[in-house]
Amino acid sequence: MCVGLSAKVVRISDGTAVVDAGGAKREVSSELLEDLEPGDYVMVHAGVAIAKITEEDDEETDQLMEELL
């Protein structure tokens, strides 16, 4: 089973995005997504932003992860 993490885009530069996932900032590839901007929310898997999501999706994902842990 694979788990994707939701994150907020902080910065974008040359196909790489800095994202904030629960306070942890890291660089991920953003080459799969077009029109990505700081403030957008994304689903990240294996160091790659694979889909744009809504802020509500992000909050729901965070809540579910807290319940599981």
From TrEMBL:
Organism: Mediterraneibacter faecis
Family listed: Belongs to the HupF/HypC family.
A GO term for molecular function: iron ion binding
Domain of life: Bacteria
Protein name: HypC/HybG/HupF family hydrogenase formation chaperone
Pfam families recorded: HupF_HypC (PF01455)
Gene3D superfamilies: 2.30.30.140
GO biological process: protein maturation
